[in-house]
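Lab meeting notes turned into a lecture example. A postdoc, R.K., suggested we walk through two folding results consecutively so the class can see how the record format repeats. The first protein's sequence and structure tokens come next.
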Amino acid sequence: MRALLRILEQKGHIRHEELEGRYVFMPTVARDKAKRSAIRHLVTTFFDGSSEEAVAALLDASASKLSDSELDRLQDLIDKARKGGRK
């Protein structure tokens, strides 16, 4: 485990601070930025860059589990994307 942490730190993915005699490791990238990067990588790797295919796969996997409020939120996001795409 220490070797992996050292490698991640050398690559700039994490940093550490010493706190009360212990090393505390933290990411070097903000959570939102890391999420966007991970999603981009996922869409590129598994869906040939197609956001539509990625969303369709997520919906196929969880459609029966989505609440009405979640579906409404998704519809709102789609509506906003349509308006933003036609400026």
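The second example is placed directly after the first for contrast:
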Amino acid sequence: MQIQTNEARIILVIKAVRLSRKISIRVAAKLYNIPKSTLFNKIAGRTPRSEIKANYYKLTEIKEEVIVRYILDLDLRGFAPRLTNVEDIANYILESRGGKRVGKLWAHRFV
């Protein structure tokens, strides 16, 4: 029986290592053809890099949620959510918390 996904193979290897204390993580990784670093990280409970938000984001998830609700509210009222409006609300939120502005459009609108 062949396992289709890499994630399923990793889960299978973790179960095998936990059930049988005789097999090491390195040996199990080699047997199941999985990188040992991936297996070590998964067993240690580390979050994969693909699921971690990058450091350069200016808005937190809560602030992003506020902006999304603002856009949905505009749409519900029948107004088109324009980029400038969304940028203005993002800048308002950031400036009220001492952050820097987003986007490049704001400088050109006031010239």
